[in-house]
Amino acid sequence: MTEDEPDIVQGTSLWKDAWRRLRRNRLAVVGMIIVSVIVLASLIGPPIIERATGFTYDYIPSDSGLVRSFPPFTSADGSFSWTHPMGTDDAGRDLLARVLLGGRISLMVGLISTLVSLIIGVTFGATAGYSGGKIDDAMMRIVDVLYAIPYMMVVIVLLAFFGGQSPLGQLFLLFIGLGAVSWLTMARIVRGQVISLKNQEFVLAARASGAPPVKIIFRHLVPNTLGPVIVYATLTIPSVMLLEAFLSFLGLGVQAPLASWGSLAADGIRNIAIFPWQLIFPGMTMAAALFSLNFVGDGLRDALDPQMRKTD
Amino acid sequence: MLRFVIRRLMVTLPMILVVVSLTWGLIRLAPGNFYTGEKVLPPAIEQNIREKYGLDQPWYVQYGRMLSNTLHGDFGNSLRYQGQSVNEILRNSLPVSASIGLAAYLLALLVGVTTGAISALRQNSGLDHASMGFAMIGISLPNFVLGPILVLTFALTFFWLPPARWEGFWSLNTILPVVTLSLVYMAYIARLSRSGMLEVLRSNYIRTARAKGLKEKDVVIRHGLRGGLLPVVSFTGPALALLITGTVVVERVFALPGLGQYFINANLNRDEPLIIGIVAFMSITVLLFNLLVDVAYGFFDPRVRY
After folding, report:
1. Contact: B142, A160; criterion CB under 8 Å
2. Is the Cβ of B201 closer than 8 Å to some Cβ of chain A?
3. Which residues of chain B are within 8 Å of residue A155 when distances are taken between CB atoms?
4. Is the peptide bond before A223 cis (omega within 30 degrees of 0)?
């Protein structure tokens, strides 16, 4: 940059810059499109299916005397039909409707658990970073310790012993359990950011004007860590969804009549040799969603934090 | 260095006690008991059961006994598998999980590092894009979806490999579980070693190595890999904790009699001694492994001092 450059250059903000970079990342854009399609379909799909075919996620047709799973695009007499684009499950329920419901639940678990982990991680990391000294040491030692324990085993114990009461209670346990084990990296990231920010003038100014530490942390420091936090949160969503799927696969996650992609896949595995579509559709939808979310997360990282960018 | 190891070993024990206590607390806070079932027991029988397992004593006595058991490494008898001690179950199932897990991780290291390093050397080539896309699939595809699909393809359609059953490690049966378990780590390792290598290959000491006229092979292997693999080394610690989750799933898919299967069943059966035993054992393994990784880090990176 030279000094005689005209100063009418259009100002650009961090976010505008990031958005421009993100749009140029083809994989991230494709990822965003796929994620939007899946989110939209799980939101508006079920009512549309109900209108069109009368099937909901838990509707079991009464005339299916002998329970049989229909292949995709097949009707009861074996001819082509649009009624079940993904086929049906063992009980004759429409698989598409169930996959869309599973999407709602899986995405909800991903979002809310990530939110829980965000709240814990940001609070913990920012407090440690701002306090510094012995408090910081102690708090980060706790994080180190927690990193090293096989926490999923504790979550399994939690769900096995406290779960199974009601479908909604189970979801609540999942939010808490998964959120409580995925905040560690977030805490480290936020702490690092806060440490690098806390000696800057605007913090000094806030302190000089008498702002209490809590206000300095949450009003002045945390908003400035938003970039990395958003990036990491985006990458936490798919990993939490994967954990939820593990637990549902083991029969400890989402309970019937609700379904998630993990629980649907678990149901499908039992019949894999005869009714492969029962596994393929939920499994592949889930893989597509995670795949795209990961690409969006990677793209966001490259866009928001060019210094971290190693993939160019 | 020695002081570092000793200090770490000293915190290991309290940490295991914390994990075990947490697990025990969860089990005891949960409603119900291992003997409560469909059938309501007559009070006399219930009284006998409670006495036999020491449940009639105050909680701190029971807690103290559990801690002392853990410290002695003797977890008592399983409540469900009659006549088997927890230690026997651990001894029988550990080799299954450990051999599968180790083989999977070694396979992942071998393939992952090679792919990652080649991708870094041929950055932005078709090969690079293909292997990174493949790695992303590996990260996103849950292994309980991948496993059955592999079974369906290789065992039930082409009949190349047996689908399931445990016949010892050295049999064709282990191929599918190991591959299934390994794919996700392969993907992570490939990504980590690629980005690590990319960074290192741009660094000054690599330029120095090239400038002093080393052969490209030596530059890449002797200097590049050593620095570029550091992220992979530090991934090994968390990977082990992940590997445990993975084995639980893979053992379920392939019906392997490993620790993970026992752990899930113990949870469903409320088999408290077995749960405590497995949690304690796994925590020790993970903690010691993490220590080992941290020590190894010092050998790989001469800048690290303890």
Report:
1. no
2. no
3. none
4. no
Contact A287 B140 (CB under 8 A): yes
pLDDT in tens, chain A (312 residues): 445 555 566 666 767 777 777 777 777 788 888 888 888 888 887 777 767 666 666 666 666 555 566 666 666 666 666 666 666 676 667 777 788 888 888 888 888 888 888 889 888 888 888 887 888 888 887 887 777 677 778 888 888 888 767 777 788 888 888 888 888 888 888 888 888 887 778 878 888 888 888 888 888 777 777 777 887 888 888 888 888 888 888 888 777 777 888 888 877 777 776 777 777 788 888 888 888 888 888 777 777 765 554 443
Closest CB to B249: pick one of A246, A276, A283: A246
CA–CA separation, B279 and B244 (whole Å): 11
Query: What residues in B contact A276, CB-CB < 8 Å?
Result: 152
Return the number of other C-beta atoms located less than 10 Å from residue A17's C-beta: 13
What pTM, to 2 d.p., does this model score? 0.80
Structure token pair of residue B230? 């550091």
Measured between CA atoms, how close is B27 to chain A, in angstroms?
A: 6
Contact B11 A145 (CB under 8 A): yes
B189/chain A closest Cα distance in angstroms: 15
For the beta carbon of residue B264, count every other beta carbon within 10 angstroms. 19
- Where residue B214 falls (left for φ over 0; alpha for ψ -120 to 50; beta otherwise) is beta
3-state secondary structure B35-52: CCCCCCCCHHHHHHHHHH
**A94 phi, psi to nearest 5 deg:** -65, 120
In angstroms, the separation between the Cα of residue A283 and the nearest Cα of chain B is: 6
ipTM > 0.90?
no
Quickly list DSSP for A14-34: HHHHHHHHHHH-HHHHHHHHH
